[in-house]
Amino acid sequence: MNKFILLFILLFIVSCKKSEEAKNYKDLNSTKYFSISTDLKNLKNIEKNKVNDSLYKVKGIFKNYAINGYITNNNIRINWWSAFDNKTKELLAKLEYKLIDNKEFVNQYILFENKSIDTLGSKFYSVKKNANSVSYKFYMPSQLKKLNCEGKLNYHIYSKGTEQAHLQCKCIKNANIFNCEFPIPKDLNFNDITIRGNFWEMFQLENGDIGGNDIYVLDTLK
Prior knowledge:
By secondary structure, the chain is mainly beta. The chain is built from three helices and 15 strands. It has helices at residues 3-10, 18-21, 30-37, and strands at 44-52, 55-62, 65-72, 77-85, 91-100, 103-113, 116-117, 124-129, 133-139, 146-159, 162-170, 172-174, 177-183, 193-205, 210-221. The strands form three sheets. A seven-stranded antiparallel beta sheet has the order 1-2-3-4-5-6-7. Strands 8-9-13-12 form a four-stranded antiparallel beta sheet, with no helix packed on it. The longest helix is centred in the N-terminal third of the chain and has 8 residues, at 3-10.
């Protein structure tokens, strides 16, 4: 199975009409890809288990995939969702829902190819605590030919629930990965810090159009 077919499967597109089958799905954004397969209305054999008063874990079947994730008591999708091959139980994709301005938003998605992360087709980040600094890596999808790419991280540093700093870090681009490292003030307890922020990738396409990607970050360092 070639990479295009695998990507097509991982993104769980429902092709109900011939006109839909002819679309170029690479032009669609992640929300359109994933909203179908994680919509409770499209799942069969749904199991719903209460985690607490405001959170439920759900499982269901979408075509040949086993889907699981989390919803609020108002049926709003949040946190990480996963999709597995229903026969082999192999993990095919993960995605993170966040609630932004009272709307569901796909913040990160990770696609897997041969049981490894497809870093060229995924959109996610990793964080690492160093001796006196924090480093982030933001992986951006590379299907489009981008020109004049630039990435920045606007971030807030909190300690004991109080904001200590609000700064911006310009990221260094390496292929489709943006690296960002910044120091932590020496007077703060490094084991009691929360980072909250937003990464923005801005780029120009060959036809002159301007595009962008963003990822919200929220990490507690311990």
